[in-house]
Amino acid sequence: MKFAIILLVVVAIVCVIGSLVPQGEQFEAYRDSYSERAAAFILAFRLDDVFHSWWFITLVSLLCLSLLFCNLSRVRALIRQTKDAARPERAVSDTPAVSADGVSDPEAVMKRLRFRNPVRTTVDGADVLFAYRNRFGFWGAWICHVGIILIVLGYALGQMTLFSASVYGTPGQTKPVEGTPYEVTVDDFRTVRNDAGFIEQYVSELTVRSTKDGTAQSGTASVNHPAVLHGMKYYQTASGYAARVSIAENGVPFESADLCVGEELTISFLPGFSLYLDGFEEDHNGVPAYHVLFFYQGQHVDTGRNYFAPGSGIDLGGYTITFSDPLEYTLLRVKKDSFSWLVLTGSILTTLGLFFALYVVPETVWAVRREDGTWTVNGKSKKLAPLFKEQFDRAVTGRKGKEEAQ
């Protein structure tokens, strides 16, 4: 158990590190965010891909095996303990936690303790009155440990097999979900504001279609309420403005495209030349000015101008590039965790185990008839011994507790 606790703490720390350190980045990204030495450390110890590293898989495997063996080693003892709790002869030979001699009516005592249907039997020639309850409370910690195993296993497997992708889109656009046979169409996107003008919610109406068989599913994604389509969850992550880029030659338009922040557009009439929508800034009226970067063969080109208000543009060798019609786009995060059900099952079992461990307390009472005709009443509680003793004393004397009196 000590080894399992140590492993659990180590795995928890590693999971925190894996959540804080951006995963899947290049050396340059870590160097710019931290330092060159930290970047080298991150890559050397696979902290850029924690949940797929061999040492993380080893840690989780050892933790699950340790917890599993801890549980398996206790099964036989728990079965025996559960059976013994229902055996009068076992209770009579046990050492009671509380006891009272000279009781004339043991059934009344048991009734006041809320033990139902006591069994009258004979043990070693003596008359015995026996009752028990909540014997399955012995299994509380065991069930809780099984739940923890499933949570750890489900989270680890989920992280190792997790699929995640991002999709930008303006209303009417259809974009592929990279790495899947699906494409998502943004049917509508709207920003919900309250009476004071503050944003309350972002809502995307989506249709996801399979490129294999053509089947389509539609749904609504909003913040904290993902849409589940074709087995994947579509999270409403962010929004921003997209620019409609129009290209004209001598005043005659011949090409246009909607460009979201973070997207690059290759200009067909200038081989090797592209523009990148880096971001936008809003003026006091909320009108965006687009920050556009120009590149030639991967190298940044200084055109003398980087910010463009809606309707403005730039001339390049007889061609005019205009940025117009600011459109709100939605940023969707697409995820598929095949083992979330395992985590949910583990959470339910852990909660159930805690309930059994804390509230389903195994208790036993038994009375042995003495030679003078009176009885010795005994009791034992697995937990909450002081409370059980108080209840036992009241039951023997016939006094009522505050709750009973009310």
Give a written overview of the molecule:
With about 400 residues, the chain is α+β, with helices and mostly antiparallel strands. The protein is built from 10 helices and 20 strands. Strands 4, 9, 10, 11, 17 and 18 form a 6-stranded antiparallel beta sheet that branches. A 5-stranded antiparallel beta sheet has the order 1-20-19-3-2. Strands 12, 13, 14, 15 and 16 form a 5-stranded antiparallel beta sheet that branches. Helix 2 packs across helix 3 and helix 4 (about 55-85) runs antiparallel to helix 7 (about 140-160). About 25% of the residues are buried. Mean pLDDT is about 85; it is low at about 400-405.
Which features would summarize this protein structure in a list?
single chain; 406 residues; alpha+beta; 3 domains; six-stranded antiparallel β-sheet; five-stranded antiparallel β-sheet; 34% helix; 38% strand
Mean pLDDT: 87
Query: Mind summarizing the main beta sheet?
Result: 6 strands, antiparallel
Give the overall shape, derived from the CA principal axes. Answer: elongated
Estimate nothing, just give the exact number of structural domains: 3
Overall SS class? alpha+beta
Are there runs of 5+ residues with pLDDT below 50, and where? 400-406
Tell me the span between the first and last alpha carbons.
Answer: 46 Å
Order of helices and strands: HHHHHEHEEHEEEEEEEEEEEEEEEHEEHH
Fraction of helical residues = 25-40%
Number of helices: 10
Write down how many β-strands occur, each being a DSSP E stretch of 2 or more residues.
20
Strand content: 35-45%
Round the Cα radius of gyration to an integer and report it. 35 Å
